[in-house]
Protein 1
Amino acid sequence: MTEVRVRRSSPSTMAFSSVLLFIFSIYSCYAQVPLLMWTSDGYSMPHLGQPAAGQAVSGGQLVSYLKSALSTAPHNVLLFLQDKLSIDDFTMYGGVFGNKQDSVFLNVESALQTSSSPLMLPALDWSASNSVLELFQGELGIPAVHINPSTLKEIKLNTTQPSLLVVHLPYTAGAQSKELLLKNDEIIGKVLDMFKSQDVSYTAVYTGLKPSRVIEDTPVMAGSFVGRSLLQASSEVPSVKPPVVFINTLKQPCILLWADTLLASFLGNETDLGKDIFNSSAPPDLTGSVCNETMSRLVLNYQKVLNFQSLRLIFSMRKIFFPVSARDWTVMEQVVLEYDGQRAIFNASGGIYAPAEYSFHCQSVSSVQNPLLVPRNATDNATQWKLTFTDFQIQGFNVTGEMFSYASDCAGFFTPGIWMGLLTSLLMVLILTYGLHMIMQIHTMDRFDDPKGPAISVPLSE
């Protein structure tokens, strides 16, 4: 097959420069790596909202991004993995300050500009980036093929089946980093050119396994308790937890659930009901779940848990219109545990609610401390149970994809810290007011000694 050189046109430099300047101005944290994702010409990805300024994209959020992107993007995936990559690499060698002739990302720049809907995540948790390959293998259901750039001419692509091609790009910090980045960009251009020559649509991803400027630039003192020492010592890839998604009869997502833990304790015996539904490769059993315009019911089914033959955890939500706010609200009516023919019912409407178009999030949803889950009555079976959900997020209405909408958090406005600040400020204002009042009560002398007149005599005999 004849190798076709990559066409390096003269695209608008302002767009790419402004994107990189925007990325660098907002995300100056060294603990994350960037991720760039684009499609071949003629294809597009659904509109994916950019994360908020300063927010690092976690592994669970990355799963949602990839699922949404692959719903319309080509399933021939090119994964360019660089050992180390940081935003500083684009700033130093991308020509973002007008030195476009010095840019080492010409092919990446051209690919991003020709793509109709590129995805740029400037701050991806680098530990999550280690699992990008596993995420794509899980989503596509195929093993990855590691290719050598020197053997590109020998590769023949099968357009009838999805493929996952992985190209490992080296990185060396120091004086040679610019030259190596330029060579890596040329490799990316050759691979993209190979796909174009064979008329194969593709989805390309460019990211790093670790940040390039965390360990090399900052020495870690022995025994110092800092985050960078943990990043240096850590080699394990944390488990990635995509949200639980219930698909309705129209093959559309209608309920989303995510939690760090779903702890359930019965008479002292405790288990995490979330470890099997979030970490397992097999989909959770959602038999009995249902959703419509006014009611959503998510059912998590378990077998042989806490010495029970069967157990079901049920979240019942309802959309209610409140005239005072003139809008619809999602209210969690009940959280129910059904186990071996018995039921434990917790009322949740007092604290778990959010606008219908939002998701609900709370760092801790518990029936024990600051309870948002309250047993229905004092004699109910729920008094034998203790539930604690950490980093809990759920959405039962207005679900537009496999990503949560804006979260309405359970934390009230007047937190203990705010109350402490208000009371301290009030005390300071009272002290200042009292001081001013005392100063205003001071009277000056109404008689003064005139040096030109007779001296003031004060008789002392009487």
Note: The mean pLDDT is 77.
Protein 2
Amino acid sequence: MAAPGEGSAGGVSAARAQCPASPQGGPGPAGREPRLRDTPEDICFEATANAIALHPARPLLAAGDVDGDVYLYSYSCTEGENRQLWSSGHHLKSCRDVAFSQDGQKLFTVSKDKSIHMLTVEEGRLETRFPKAHGSALNCVLPIDNHVFATGDDAGALKVWDLRKGDAILEARQQEEYISAMAVDGNGKILLTASGDGTLGVFNVKRRRFELLSEPQNGDLTSVVLLKRGKKVACGSSEGTIYLFNWDGFGAASDRFALRAESVDCMVPITDSIVCVGSLDGVIRPCRVPTSPPVPRAVNVLPNRVLGCVGQHLGEPIEQLAVAPGGQLLASCAHDQKVKFWDVSALGGLVVDDYRKKKKKGGPLRALSSKAVGGGEDFFADLQDEAGPEAAAAGTDSDGDSD
């Protein structure tokens, strides 16, 4: 999702590899051994980062900002060891999305200026450029294999590209509004697109054709992820609802899970049934969804539960989430011009009881990391368990496994 205030780049923005010293970290007295932290220190920018991606094998983070600049950082849990490796100012307008190739050697970036760039990860050198790749501003990019990748734009157009041919091998415009996110199955065959018109699009990459559209859901679909070893698909929406689809039933949602959040703006899977979601209120919730995912809130799937709070960008809308290899570390970017890191290693071990205990109205979200605002007596005092009685009454929660 593009951030407000996008504009033309005026050169490469300065970025700092770490934030000023805080109670959780920062430079210590001279001669002191560097301190090991649970998570890397925050990375601060002079402009809002729209997009982040974590390298598939190495501790590297890529970020694209509203000025069109792209950065590569190395990150470390050793205090003071975050480093900016390079920056690129080739985009003329806001960088909307970044993604590493599957082999980790290239970085794809797409922009409001309608261009696609491929940069070398080692040097940040511009290797390939499609200057007018789409007729409208680009919004997202997804590598499918080491040669094929997909892009979606603000007008609902999808293109699938083959680098060996140097051109698009599939072009479609089945959706009426912007394509917000994409996902692909493990075989690189079926491509899913979430759209602002509330539909989930299904495309066959191997046969280069459109398959079907789901029924429109309430609100924009803002994210899409695969769960339960590819048997389930979860989509976040601008209405704060997670919609679940069976893999063999994309026409209509099989279940829905209403969070008490203004929106679900981004979502990443942590385990096969837990996703982390980020929203306008700046909170990351992990959720267990009926055979689904978690969020910068943590959410459990089947039974659907909001598990608590992983972390927060206080009052600042979260733009994107990314998970490090191994699923131990989560990164988030928001309008506070920071990338923050969260320890999510404990989420996979959480036991979610099928029996739902009635939660006291107004009760706080459970803090699920040491950096989540503590105990919930201040910022989270007005946040409730999103999977409470009201969701059940609305028919939005299923405690049975619908595989």
Note: The longest strand covers residues 221-227.
Protein 3
Amino acid sequence: MDFNMKKLASDAGIFFTRAVQFTEEKFGQAEKTELDAHFESLLARADSTKNWTEKILRQTEVLLQPNPSARVEEFLYEKLDRKVPSRVTNGELLAQYMAEAASELGPTTPYGKTLIKVAEAEKHLGAAERDFIHTASINFLTPLRNFLEGDWKTISKERRLLQNRRLDLDASKARLKKAKAAEAKATTVPDFQETRPRNYILSASASAAEQELRVAQTEFDRQAEVTRLLLEGISSTHVNHLRCLHEFIESQTTYYAQCYRHMLDLQKQLGSSQGAIFPGTFVGTAEPASPPLSSTSPTTTAATMPMGPSVADLASPGEAALRLEEVAPPASGTRKARVLYDYEAADSSELALLADELITVYSLPGMDPDWLIGERGNKKGKVPVTYLELLS
């Protein structure tokens, strides 16, 4: 019990000394040991890494799970060390509703058949989204969390300890400075009655202060080296986060490629079924109520165009160029399109494009749905749909 009381009193004394030193430094009444410029640079880089890692982590969580309530629920499950329950994605839920609607409205009707096809596509999109979220969480979010909850906590702990060692060092310097000043004053103004005892006590006090300073300096240097090594490890953290970022982009690329493939398959299915219902037209309406937005998929927008007159085989580039020049554009069904990106023609059957220019486009029966016929003045050739934004 006595030992604990002594330790408690000693800790209280150290805490009080540090508090006094810190307060005097804030008011400019005490000197402060400054760290070297390289060390300060390491500290600044570590703080910046921590702050940006937190922001990237939080925003990635929002990207993967926009619902804040769901994020809070997942956070609580993780803190309780319990498995997060499986959650239905929005695409899977939409697929379920569409399938139920088709069952009730009539699965053999044109609308019901279309609902079933779209529901199947949405189900695939939801499954792809689920895989993407799972992969991104493991390969990207988990390493970021491990850094914040592991390495950064260790760095923060050692930095606080370094701060305490610095306060002890500066307090020791202040005590030695006072002891030296008192000893010097006693030497210049002697007391003939108590000269020896007083000078002896002051000299012993100065010696004790010097010894205390040496110990404090050693502990500070040792802690500064430990902290410096941890801060230099931030470079390895950057390398690890870079690798995780590449894996995140790879999983995101795979996810969007799957979505694109599923939607192309759906578009082909809807195109064939819609053509059977409304002969002579593509999917959608021939005249939209308003011009499509720039974010609208060019492939989808192109499918709304009326079919034009037929043209013979376009397989051979040389023959295709000749035949395209001979084919007149349809009397109806031509549209204006804005070019989104520069495109260099691969052969004479294609039309080179410049970004933001306006051209006239139309479709011909039997053509690849990913291509249209484009006209600019007297020039004519095939153009890729993905490079266009159809306007009217």
Note: Residues 278-322 have pLDDT under 50 and may be disordered.
